[in-house]
Write a structure and sequence with these properties.
Elements: E1 19-22, E2 39-43, H1 59-68, E3 73-75, E4 82-84, E5 87-92, E6 98-103, H2 117-127, H3 159-167, E7 171-175, E8 178-182, H4 190-193, H5 204-211, H6 220-223, E9 239-245, E10 249-254, E11 267-271, H7 276-285, E12 290-292, H8 298-303, H9 307-310, E13 311-315, E14 318-324, H10 334-342, H11 346-353, E15 358-360, H12 383-393, H13 396-399, E16 403-407, H14 410-427, E17 432-436, H15 438-447, E18 452-459, H16 466-469, H17 488-499, H18 503-519, E19 523-535, E20 539-540, E21 542-544, E22 562-563
Parallel strand pairs: 2-11, 16-17, 16-18
Antiparallel strand pairs: 1-21, 3-4, 5-6, 6-8, 7-8, 9-10, 10-11, 12-19, 13-19, 14-18, 14-19, 15-19, 20-22
Length: 566
């Protein structure tokens, strides 16, 4: 998902190695606090728009969703593969079109009722209901599941059309412990799609009871009534919601019927403090146990003898870049785009503007996942080469008329002014900032109404390269590929890799595709951002993984965490 939107979970990595037992002591038998003190208080930042995981999009929503509902699988702690949650195993047909999931037979809902395959079919159909327009259906599910390709064209107000679409999906439950998904075409990455927290089972009886009875598939209000009350949010995850305090906090407690060993943490309280400075103050007074460090306080924390020991710096599976509208001259010229890319001092950007919270990266795939390769230095900082490329193009005057689309926030204006100054100093061109409100920026980039836009970027939805390379295919113009550069060779390589079940061949194809992105300066790659968090020293046993949420290190495995006496 695009970084500027903070969609989905911010995917974290530690250069390919997960951090176990963050904070030191990993032995819960030593100095363990009493059960009534096993409370983790963290800042989730924002109130979730929905507690129905199928309707969630943002990190602060997923943070609750992954605690209350389990998907079929999740990523292993090191991101190398998937591991069981709701399913214990899966079979894939020889043609790659049929996935048979063998469900966990001892899995129960938080009210004690067994989870059965029909619940998975119902949950996925609820998620794929065009009337509900869930944010994560497209492109992960509708473009892969058999019968889903017409999702975007279904009139969500017409019950017959919605029902026909849902009944035509390749989802079935041949018995209580078998869930079958048929695909439209081979998709080697589909196992990773099953790890997304939005693809979960749901209880039809619970949803209909909360709605006052059965209801038409087009009634979005009744379809979501259950998700507004903690008492009717019955999930299959490790925790369940005890309290929803609007615009303040959500309290989670252990699911007594969860299949795994009982956790030590008896409460997780997610506060919804939007102001980073307020959260930082509350952390310092002891009211919070875990926060993301505000950028303005990074230096203070690093120099503080106590806080510096509680801080963790985590490379994220993300990348920032500058998008250039290749439909407009002179940005349709590769030499001009490459000149812009090579004239930015990325190290200075990270150190001076981002206070060291990142690492310069002039290639695409970030460190910490398959595909990371920095051997192609075509976009590396080289002011002399950049000037030469621009001179060869003969388009310096045209470039000086370009504007850099900028969101009206202090951080965006500061960073983009740095970019403009770099171009002025190193290229001799005067590119001005076009500062407007964030909502209008989003509208304009989607319509292609911009010259240069930055910083743009991506956060992995799961640690597989497919999630990245599909950004720049021709069909993503005005959707993800804002610059709209079309390259049939790139499209072919990505299509082949997406469907190839051979890991070695997939990797080779994606490597070739990455080289085309870099060498053609489809975008100007900038840097891999890091997350800087504070965690109290008495919070032990955290396992920071590739799928943790923003500023909540270890949240997908809180069952390993515990509080020591303090």
């Amino acid at each position: 998902m695009h970084i500027g939107v903070w969609s989905r979970a911010l995917t974290l990595a530690t250069a390919g190695v997960f951090i176990a037992a963050c904070g030191g002591n990993n032995n819960p038998t030593q100095n363990l606090a009493s059960p009534d003190k096993q409370i983790l208080r963290a800042n989730n930042g924002t109130e979730p728009n929905s507690f129905d995981p199928t309707q969630q999009t943002y990190t602060y929503e997923r943070a609750v969703g992954v605690q209350t509902f389990d998907s079929l699988f999740r990523a292993k702690a090191d991101g190398s593969d998937i591991e069981p949650l709701g399913a214990t195993s899966m079979d894939v047909s020889s043609d790659g079109l049929t996935y048979t999931f063998h469900l966990r037979q001892n899995e129960k809902w938080s009210d004690g009722k067994p989870v059965v395959a029909a619940d998975w079919v119902y949950g996925w159909k609820h998620f794929l209901n065009p009337a509900l327009a869930a944010g994560y259906v497209d492109p992960f599910f509708d473009l892969t599941i058999k019968g889903g390709a017409n999702y975007g064209n279904v009139d969500g107000t017409k019950q017959a059309d919605v029902d026909a679409f849902l009944n035509g999906l390749g989802l079935s439950a041949p018995d209580d412990h078998t869930f079958v998904v048929q695909l439209d075409h081979p998709a080697a990455y589909f196992k990773w799609v099953t790890t997304l927290w939005v693809a979960v089972p749901l209880r039809q009886d619970i949803i209909e009871k909360a709605a006052g009875g059965s209801f038409p598939s087009t009634d979005t209000t009744k379809a979501e009534a259950w998700a507004n009350n903690a008492a009717t949010i019955v999930g299959n995850g490790p925790y369940m919601i005890k309290e929803i305090a609007p615009k303040d906090h959500v309290t989670l407690v252990p699911n007594p019927n969860y299949w795994a060993p009982a956790p030590h943490l008896q409460q997780i309280v997610y506060y919804e403090i939007a102001d980073g400075n307020t959260a930082y103050s509350q952390y310092n007074t002891g009211a919070l146990d875990m926060i993301g460090v505000p950028l303005a306080d990074v230096t203070v924390v690093r120099n503080d003898p106590k806080l510096s020991k509680e801080a963790i710096l985590i490379p994220t599976l993300s990348q920032y870049w500058i998008s250039m509208n290749t439909t407009r001259a002179p940005l349709d010229d590769k030499n001009v785009r490459m000149a812009l890319a090579k004239s930015i001092d990325r190290d200075k950007l990270v150190n001076d503007i981002e206070h060291g919270n990142g690492k310069s990266l002039d290639t695409f795939i970030p460190k910490g996942m398959t595909g990371y390769n920095t051997s192609d230095n075509a976009q590396s900082f080289d002011p002399a080469a950049a000037k030469q490329l621009l001179a060869q193009s003969g388009k310096a005057d045209q470039l000086s008329k370009m504007k850099l689309l900028t969101r009206n926030s202090t951080a965006s204006k500061t960073l983009n002014q740095f970019l403009a100054d770099q171009w002025n100093t190193n290229l001799g061109v005067n590119i001005t900032l076009d500062v407007i409100d964030s909502k209008t920026v989003t509208r304009d980039i989607r319509k292609g109404q911009f010259d240069i836009y930055g910083l743009d970027g991506w956060i992995g939805d799961y640690p597989d390269q497919q999630d990245w390379f599909d950004i720049f295919v021709t069909g993503s113009c005005h959707n993800l590929n804002w610059g709209c550069l079309s390259d049939p060779n790139y499209d072919k390589l990505v299509s082949q890799a997406d469907g190839d079940s051979n890991k070695t061949e997939r990797a080779q194809l994606y490597t070739q595709a990455q080289k085309l992105l870099i060498d053609n300066a489809v975008v100007a790659f900038m840097y891999q951002p890091y997350e800087y968090d504070l965690v109290k020293s008495y919070v032990k046993g955290l396992t920071v993984t590739t799928t943790d949420d923003q500023n909540l290190p270890g949240d997908e495995r809180y069952n390993t965490a515990f509080i020591t006496q303090h």
